[in-house]
Design a protein that fits this description.
single chain, globular, alpha+beta, Pnp Oxidase, Chain A, UbiD C-terminal domain-like
Length: 632
Amino acid sequence: MAYSGLCDFIRYLEENNELHRINTFVDPVLEITEVTDRVTKSGGKALLFENTGTIFPVLINAFGSDKRISMAIGRNDLEEAGREIELVFNKISASSGNLLEKLSRLPDLIKLSGILPVKSVKKGRCQQIIHNDPDLGILPVLKCWPFDGGRFVTLPIVHTIHPETGSTNAGMYRMQILDHKTTAMHWQLHKTGASHFEAWKKTGKKMPVSVALGGDPVYTYSATAPLPENIDEYILAGFLRKKRVRLVKCITSNLYVPEDADIIIEGYVDPVEDPVWEGPFGDHTGFYSLADWYPRFHVTCITHSKDAVYPATIVGIPPQEDSLLTKATEKIFLAPIKIILQPEIEDLHMPDPGIAHNLVIVKMKKSYPGQGTKVISSLLGAGQMMFTKYLVVVSGNVDIRNYSELIQNIFINTDFGRDLIFNRGPLDVLDHSSDTFAFGGKLGIDATTKTPEERSGRTGVSNQTVAGLTKGINNLIKENLIKAFNISLLIKNIPVLIISVNRTEDNDIISKVSSALKSLLIGDQFKLVLAVDHTVDINDFFTVAWQMLGNSDPLRDHQFISESSLIIDGTIKAFRPGGFIRRWPNIVCSDNETINSVDQKWELMAIGPFIPSPSMKSGRLKRNGNEEVILF
C-alpha cells in the first residue's frame, strides 16, 4: 500500500483507531517530548499535535508499535515483508551474473523493473508552496531534552550524491538548528553521508544536500534500514510500498527528492568552511551524546505541500519509537543477513536495553565444533554488526525473545573460562564507555550447544543454599563494600549476582569487592556478577541491563573471580581511580518544570488516564545535579 504524504497515512491511522489528535497547545520546546515519552512507554497511539505555534501539525510516535510499522510499510505484519524479501534474495542468490542481471530475471516474482525509482520533469506535491527566502523558524522543530544544544530535526531524510560515482544516499542524520538559515549536519564517522562529504572535500566545490520530511512513511523506514552503500534506499521503498517512488528535481540543486514528501529543505554544505559545534543531544542510548564538531548546512530553499505535516520522533532512555524500528529491521532483514553473511543463522534479536549495538543475540544452526566461534568472528566484522559490543550466539530449540529461557540456555551451555571471546574493534560513535572514541572492547559469548570435542568436563555451580549465600554477601554490606544485592535469579537456576556500589565513597571499590567475592568463593555459586551504581534499582532488571551494557567496556571492565566466573563493572567510570579520559555523559530525562506543565495539561489533551512521567523514576540516576556531563 502506498501513501501520498503524511495526511494520507494519518487518515489510515485514524480509521484504524491508531491516532490521537491533540488540539491543546503543546510547546515543541520540551513539552511534546514529555507527552510523547509517557505515551510511547505506555504503548499508546500515534500523536498528532495540531496546535504547535506554527502552521504545521506535528506527527510523532507513528512507528510506536508493530501494528503501525506494518501499516506504514503496507503489510499485515512485519513477517510478511520478511518472507517477501527472503523469497527475493533466494532467487537472486540462485542466479548468476551481476546484480542488475539477477534483478532482471525476477519479473515474475515482484516485477522489480516496476519498483525502481523514476525521475519526473514535473514539479511535485512537495513543491506546491515554495519559500525562496527560507526561514527554518516556520517549522515546529523540537527541543527534546533540557540539556540539548538546541532544537533538532529528528526524522530528516538527508539526500546526498557522490561527486565522482554519482551514487546517491538517503540517510537519517539529525540536524541541529543554528539560526534561521543554517543547521549542523550530524554525519557520523561511519555513515555514507560522511563518506560523500569527504569526497566533496577533494573537489573544493559546495556539496548539494536536500532534506525530505514526511511523505510516504516507508521513506522514513528505508532511510534507517541497514542497506549496503551502493543500494538505493528508494528501491527498498518501492519494493515495500509495491509502487515505484517518483522523484522530482529540487528547485536550487540537481538533487532529486520524493515528489510526495511533505516538506523539503534544500541547501548545501561547503567543505572548505569550518565545522560548527553541535550538541549535546539526548540520544537513543539514554545518555546525552556530547557536543562535537560537524559540518554546517546552509538552507537555500524550503518547499512543502499545502497540507504538510511535520514528522518527528524522540529518543532517550529505552524503550522508545526507535526500538520498534529496530525490531522491524530484525524481521525484515533476517533473510539478507542469513544469505549474505552467515547461512547458518536462524534468528537475530537486539533487546531493548542494548539500544541495538550494545547487545545482539544470534541463534544459529550448529553442525560442527567451533562453529559458534566462527559465527562470532564473522559477524563482528560484517557491516553494521561491526559496532556490536556484546554478541551472544546460541543454538538449538531456544526462543531468543523469551529472556528467562534464553538466559538459562546461555548459562547451561557456556563455560565462562573457555567460551568467552574478548576483542577490540570499532564501536558506534555514541558509545561513551570506551577509553577511545569509536573504538573499544567487545565480548563474544559462544553459548551454543557444545559438541563432545568442545566440552571441558567442568561441573556446574554448587548447590549452596540461598540462605547461606545471603549471609556471606550481607557481610559485604556490613563492611560497606556493597550497598545492596539481588540473588533472586539463582532461584530460577540463573547463576547471576547483581550488586550495587558507591564509587563516590571509594573509587577503587570494584577491585576490593572482587577480592572479597573471591574469598567468599562466590565463583562456586555464580558464573556472573554484575556491578552497578548505588543509584540503580537492582530489582529492575531492565535498568540494570541498560546501565551495565551502556557503562561497560567488556574487555577493560571484567575481572575473573574464579577460573570460570567473572564480575563486570557497569558503574560510571568518571568515578574510577584517576577519573576518565573522556567526558562522561549524564542520563536523559525531563526537568521538573516541564513535567509539572504537562501534568497540568493532561486532562485538556484528552489522551486518557493520567500517565506519570517516566523521568520521575529515571531522574534518580542523574549525577552531579542536572548537567549533561558528569563532573568530577
